[in-house]
């Protein structure tokens, strides 16, 4: 009968480890409204998370400097050419006007480095524009929709966390069974 503890303890440990991690993950999102002073992490700190995410996107991912670097000479020349062709009308038929207009526009838009002129892009996109969009979008999210988004983005990791709880529970159960000998 002593051998049964090597089955029961790990089984109970696995169940408890899985359930504990399951509850911990649920508590990230629930309860949505404060109940007895307890509220889920996302509902409670949604605005702070939105602000921090906006700052991270702006500081490290997408800012006016990154956008400027993405708009190189070739891309800008093509954009100017398309715009002039669409909106230039009969003016482009005049000798040298079309080419002069294209060169002048490109010269004004591109700096010495061959990228979009920094002053122009900074006038169009201020530092808070991108982070403001991210903050606004996250703060507009319903907590339920945000929960679905997080679960969709991190599904395999959540399953890994749950399984890790079960495996750790098995190990602890085996250790307890061995200690009891």
What does this structure look like?
With 181 residues, this protein is mostly helical. The protein has one domain (2-71, 116-179). The chain is built from 9 helices and no strands. The radius of gyration is 29 Å and the shape is elongated. The model has no long low-confidence stretch (mean pLDDT 84).
Summarize the structure.
76% of the residues lie in helices and 0% in strands. With 181 residues, the protein is mainly alpha-helical. The longest helix has 25 residues.
Write the layout of secondary structure elements.
Elements: H1 5-29, H2 41-61, H3 64-70, H4 73-87, H5 97-109, H6 118-124, H7 127-140, H8 143-153, H9 155-179
Sum up the structure in keywords.
9 helices; elongated
Strand count, sense and barrel status of the largest sheet are:
none
* CA-atom Rg in angstroms: 29 Å
Element string (H = helix, E = strand): HHHHHHHHH
Uncertain runs: none
- Taken as a percent bin, the fraction of beta residues is under 5%
The number of domains: 1
Name the shape in a single word: elongated
Report how far the terminal alpha carbons are from each other.
Answer: 12 Å
How many E-type strands?
0
Oligomer: single chain
**Percent in helix:** over 70%
Number of helices: 9
Broad structural category: mainly alpha
On the 0-100 scale, what is the average pLDDT? 84
């Amino acid at each position: 009968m002593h051998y049964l503890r090597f089955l029961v303890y790990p089984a109970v440990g696995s169940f408890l480890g899985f359930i504990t991690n399951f509850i911990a993950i649920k508590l990230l999102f629930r309860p949505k409204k404060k109940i007895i002073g307890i509220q889920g992490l996302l509902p409670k700190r949604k605005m702070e998370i939105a602000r921090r995410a906006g700052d991270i996107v702006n500081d490290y991912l997408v800012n006016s400097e990154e956008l400027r670097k993405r708009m190189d000479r070739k891309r800008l020349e093509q954009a100017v050419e398309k715009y002039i062709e669409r909106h230039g009308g009969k003016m482009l038929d005049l000798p040298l006007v079309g080419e002069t207009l294209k060169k002048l526009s490109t010269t004004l838009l591109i700096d010495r480095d061959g990228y979009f002129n920094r002053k122009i892009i900074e006038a169009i996109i201020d530092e808070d524009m991108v982070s403001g969009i991210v903050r606004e979008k996250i703060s507009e999210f319903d907590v339920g929709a945000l929960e679905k988004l997080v679960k969709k983005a991190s599904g395999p990791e959540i399953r890994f966390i749950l399984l890790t709880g079960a495996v750790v529970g098995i190990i602890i159960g085996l250790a307890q069974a061995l200690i009891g000998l």
